[in-house]
Structure to design on (402 residues):
């Protein structure tokens, strides 16, 4: 590619609506965020299965998984975290525009980050899902043994401890995994998501 | 996300085969490469439409288009071009694993680059399509007015002139857009691609 050679060919490509008509579904981005251990990834994986059973094609973009591929060049400094997030949002946008229902699982601890990914994906497609559980509850679950390490001071910027998690002001949906069982949480999410994957008419 | 928090959840996610069964197609990556003006993007866009008409869901990742999103932070130095290519290959891999037929349109001038993207996508999914046209033919077409600029010395590293395009040794498919009409080229490509998008059995 050459410097002057940046001519978008988008006008030659199929309109998104034609892709969506073929798939009989509408592309969307559901952005699941919350503390480590709140249940984001489990919910995203569960939703993927429930959608499949309902005949809806979807994809999960998991912050952790992308670290071993697209984002393997990035570290954990602030600037790299921001770039990590930006790329995930750009990829989610590509998927949604291909007609796939896209679930992102990503701590996304600050309002500023949530606004940045919304700006990339766009209002029409983006829905934010706050996966809510207190630090104490996540610490007790400690699925990955991270909270013990954070408690021992081995992870200085652990979100919720050394590093703040900002509660969202008005999330599209809140799933409180501390009050509901995993099954209830998944059904609540699925019931909210499914209608938004349907084509109008 | 935290440094120790990189635990792939791939085992919780749906196996690719289940996604492909829902979509009734097999994910693949068709990598179209060749000189600027050889017809890559036009062929990719045409293939997208032919596949849609055949009921196959696909996506086009265009080197130029991605420059305005995922790769907007990258310039045209060697290292940035390499990173550009790496990211496109990683994204193509994500799409193929979601069951979509993925066309990439990217000059990819060196064997080394082609080998690098093959290594990322993997043998099973990756098929390389050499879109062949001589420098003279592309210069005569000069759809974007780039060859005139290169001739005037305004683009120092223009591929095929200041910067070499290495002919592939054994491409999976060669589409010679200099000898065939655009319609013939597209039909040749479509006929080769379609069977590979079908599920076995």
């Amino acid at each position: 590619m050459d410097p002057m050679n940046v001519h978008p060919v988008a006008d030659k490509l199929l309109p998104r609506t034609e892709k969506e008509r073929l798939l009989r579904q509408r592309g969307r981005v559901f952005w699941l965020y919350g503390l480590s251990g709140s249940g984001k990834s489990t919910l995203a994986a569960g939703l993927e299965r429930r959608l499949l059973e309902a005949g809806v094609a979807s994809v999960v973009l998991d912050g952790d998984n992308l670290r071993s591929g697209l984002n393997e060049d990035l570290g954990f400094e602030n600037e790299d975290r921001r770039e990590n997030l930006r790329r995930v949002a750009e990829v989610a946008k590509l998927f949604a525009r291909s007609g796939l229902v896209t679930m992102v699982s990503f701590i996304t601890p600050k309002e500023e980050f949530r606004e940045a990914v919304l700006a990339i994906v766009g209002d029409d497609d983006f829905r934010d899902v706050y996966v809510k559980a207190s630090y104490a509850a996540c610490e007790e679950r400690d699925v990955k043994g991270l909270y013990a390490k954070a408690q021992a001071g081995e992870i200085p910027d652990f979100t919720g401890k050394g590093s703040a998690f900002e509660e969202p002001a008005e999330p599209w949906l809140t799933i409180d995994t501390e009050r509901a069982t995993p099954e209830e949480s998944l059904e609540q999410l699925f019931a909210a998501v499914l209608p938004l994957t349907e084509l109008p008419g």
Notes: The mean pLDDT of chain B is 90. The longest helix of chain B spans residues 78-97. Chain B touches chain A through 63 residues (CB under 8 Å). The longest strand of chain B covers residues 126-132.
